């Protein structure tokens, strides 16, 4: 670059820039390197080229010609600067590595906002259709599904949530031996017939004898399940699209929970069916599988922003979970095998590589039950390295997932405010923060 070249006068949005044509020749393929006086932008009277662009940003563009690489201000919105580069026909490959983050950071934010907007539209679409034509069926759906639609709906959802909690607590209380009762003599005889298959020792038999469930707790659980099952079936009947309704892990879990409960209830009431060994196993599976209905409480998550964001974060962090599982899998195999190789002669606990892999998983996840410990020096070294690797491997993806959650959580409030301010179509969702205004928007409450 010399000072001998001819000067070029550029008027960018009213601000005049002076430079040499040799400077502009730095990027020969760009617009500024190919200026000619025949262009419409050239003014013969003022002898300058006029472009209606942002003069502040042009300062950085012109600087790029002087420095031979493009740097952008840290506070600039990436897409805006990319448009500017496109206008001046400058290739993105000239952007210096130190400024790549500023150039692309906004794209990530746009993705976040789009995901949150999709999430809101998904929840809104059902409400909006209900708003437009409200048949009895749809009003009933609104009442059952959306606690913010009216005070009655809020009371109903609270009642259902309480039933889920009460029945779950009752199911847990029923396992406390002190609350149970002793079986009667005739019942004991029936149990003996079942236990005959199992060759149990006296202590276990005595324990089974004292495990008769408390009748009040049993009654509570059954009553709760009658109402909960009725509510589930009713919601399924009135829901707008049955396919979409059941296309949810949570609902399938709840559905299974109820089926398992009624299956165990049926087996329990026909004591004689339990004679077979397999039947007892099926019974136990059904009985403890009913805990799945606790997933019912997740329905509420769409009305609690923080929980809702947890769901969005999980779906956005699938690649991080894959990294976590992949890394853990590899390390479990490596350390399990190393542990087995160093300990199998001295350690009775390390019976196979699979047992050693279980030890590796427990050590890597920093749980460390201490049920298996190394005896040899080499084993101690492997254990130490394994524990350190566990801390490092777990910290990485979990840190990313945590920051993703943080970002979604913060953006959620911006999205809410933005939707509230700008979109007439989405007004009812924006106002969901306040039950009363939402009621006004949907106008369902006054028809009850
Ligand atoms: Zn830079």
Short summary of the structure?
Helices cover 63% and strands 4% of the residues. With 448 residues, the chain is mainly α.
Using brief descriptors, characterize the structure shown.
single chain; 448 residues; mainly alpha; Potassium Channel Kv1.1, Chain A; Helix Hairpins; 3 domains; 4-stranded mixed sheet; 18 helices; 4% strand; disordered C terminus; binds zinc ion
Describe this entry's structure for a reader:
By secondary structure, the chain is mainly α. It has three domains: 7-95, Potassium Channel Kv1.1, Chain A (2-Layer Sandwich); 136-174 and 213-302; 316-435, Helix Hairpins (Orthogonal Bundle), CATH 1.10.287.70. The protein contains 18 helices and four strands. Strands 2-1-4-3 form a four-stranded mixed sheet. Strand 1 (7-12) and strand 2 form a beta hairpin. The chain is elongated. It starts with 6 loop residues before the first strand and ends in a 6-residue tail after the last helix. Residues 425-448 have low confidence and may be disordered. The site of zinc ion has 4 residues, from loops. Residues 71, 96, 98-99 line the site of zinc ion.
